[in-house]
Task: inverse folding
């Protein structure tokens, strides 16, 4: 990497500003600074995304096909770990699954909702707090969320 002096001259900032910026990058593990030798970029380690897939019953045709398609895509080089959560068409269990999303530090979720009224408030809470959620096949009115659906004729569309 260029020296602190070179960065300061290029960006027309004080050398202390440049030095502080480089210290932040070093604390975050992105670079390594060595007096007299220079500053080096460390190899980037990509974080594997932890994605929850919440479905009503993996034994049914639609959720089962969704599961198989996702597993096939991930096995072909996807950069994510999928955790399948089956709520067995029970509203109480479905709400527990929704609570697990933020408690278990998932990076996002794909969710085949039951549309039960009892689930709307917890889902809305997740979405308004910025949790990345994508509905599968069904949308919940009033919940601003991405939807992946099929019309059963022209395949799935985003």
Result:
């Amino acid at each position: 990497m260029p020296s602190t002096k070179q960065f300061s001259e290029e960006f027309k900032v004080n050398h202390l500003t440049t030095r502080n910026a480089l210290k932040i990058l070093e604390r975050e593990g992105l670079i390594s600074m060595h007096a007299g030798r220079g500053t080096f970029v460390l190899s980037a380690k990509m974080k594997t995304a932890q994605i929850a897939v919440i479905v009503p019953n993996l034994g049914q045709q639609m959720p089962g096909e969704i599961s198989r398609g996702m597993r096939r895509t991930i096995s072909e080089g996807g950069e994510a770990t999928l955790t399948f959560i089956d709520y067995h068409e029970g509203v109480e269990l479905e709400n527990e699954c929704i609570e697990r999303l933020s408690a278990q530090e998932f990076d996002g979720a794909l969710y085949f909702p039951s549309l039960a009224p009892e689930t709307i408030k917890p889902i809305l809470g997740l979405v308004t707090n910025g949790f990345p959620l994508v509905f599968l096949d069904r949308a919940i009115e009033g919940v601003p969320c991405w939807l992946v659906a099929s019309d059963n004729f022209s395949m799935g569309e985003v």
